[in-house]
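Pasting as-is:
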Amino acid sequence: MTPKREQRYTILIADDAEINRDLLRAILEDTYDVIEAEDGEQAVTILQQREHEISLLLLDFNMPYKDGFGVLDDMQKYNWIDSVPVIMITAENDSTLLKQAYDMGVIDFIRRPFNIETVRRRTINTIMLYAKQRRLAAMVNEQIYQKEKVSNLMISILSHIVEFRNEESGLHVLHIQTMTEILLKSLMRKTDKYKLDRETINLISNASTLHDVGKICIPSEILNKPGKFTDEEFAIMKQHSQMGADMMKGVPFQDEPLVKYAYEICRWHHERYDGRGYPDRLVGEDIPISAQVVSLADVYDALTSVRVYKPAHSHEKALSMILNGECGAFQPLLLECLVESSDIIQQEMAVDTITRGDQRVMENTAVELAQYEELSTTDHTLRILEQERTINHFFISISQQILFEYTSNPSILTLSPLGIERLGLEETTTDPYHNKQVQEMANPDQLAELAQLLQSTTPDQPVVEFDCDLRLDGRLRPVHLICRAMWSSEEPPEYTGAIGKIAEREEKEDIQ
């Protein structure tokens, strides 16, 4: 079966000169879908409507209504420059203009008058580099998403374990996590005293889910007593903070920040700013900020939730009781954060658990992805990818053998110089399985069989040897192919293409 045709990439040509657009279209339309814009404003309109379809923008410097730099300004404004690579079309040789264009995100230049091979090569290179970058981004995005999803699942399991014994709603742990995150973000905006950043906030809010883990060790008849505790019962109940801290001490990886924050929260989330809390009667800033925030979140959720010993208070009543000091003393700055975040806290506490969980996964995925600087479409990333291709191209170019490289997405066949000469093909061929010249050079059924063999390999056994007939030097000759399938590193691995060499066979080898 012939491999399915790869989706054609779309190129937007923005140039006010019709003759330039016609020349570029003639060079590219056999391989790509081409869209034309007659000026900068039209180019921006097309990008607004079809950004996700466009794989490359060929952009002229000098255009009416909005020039090339005006288009680049809009691409930066709307973040299109991160997803749509730009090659500038110019007859200029002004180094200042070129530097400005590079600074604004342009990847490469094509000079007029056009050289056909230069246009094709730079177009293919840019699309391939961005396709590889997108695959890398998608792979890391999926890994981070799955990690966050597993983390949320463990939090959900934990909330049910702790609160099953506590006969609570099952939402308490998730409420504490959400409110801790809201308060910390507000605190980060107000002061740099605590050295908070997005990663630290994520760690503390995740660690907050363990704040009541010590309650597992408290007898259920005390834990779920509907009335007021006796002094002896309250003394036992208070032990849960020490017991939770002891559990955290026994956890491996004590150097991990998450374990450190979990210990602080378990032990000190019932301390109070005036020193009247427990178990250690810490005062003021002796209480770690992680425990201070969870303490405030814990009190708020206890007030607004139904318990075996009381009904739920309203949001407004809970805020009033906390601010009036009826629930103990809290840091004044944190109380400011509570008031300023009041509306969002009320809104978030009402969100369905599953919805909030999915939202948290997506938010944390986005935050963590933003920290992968190598994934951004910067000059640094593209230089590394271009360097990789340059190295491969160099070794292929000095080889005295027929070598090839095939990438499946985008579908492109690249040949060594000897391969170009003897097979009669260009250095790069897009969608080779459906290319007329390739089909004249090789039997399509044999090509389909080879493709199936390569895709049937595994990362542990990627090598395929294959005999077929190819047209070399204009004559059909028997050849022997040695190929190595390429597989991605993610789980499950994905077939990404192949590399290999072609060697002639003696005619007599066919007769056994």
